[in-house]
Amino acid sequence: MTGGDEMFVILVYDINTKRVNKVLKRSRKYLNWVQNSVLEGEISEANFKKLKMELQKVINVEEDSCLFYIFRTTKYSTRESLGIKKGGEGVII
User: Fold this and answer.
1) Within a domain: 78
2) Which pTM value belongs to this model?
């Protein structure tokens, strides 16, 4: 990724069980899985567009929901965790 077009994204999703594995598989190509229905990571603008296009092909907009929290910088953010760790801990904001 080149500097300037990177962002930090948190993806939270609520997907029908019939499609949840497809959504997770596609999302993990771009982001790190950190907890059930939550992924996060640095992503370029181009890859973010690709991710959204891939998810649009899989989800049913009548039943499913994907929320993206987009941060241009993580300079002033932190993440705290209680309990067991799920998924990967590759990137921590």
Assistant:
1) no
2) 0.83
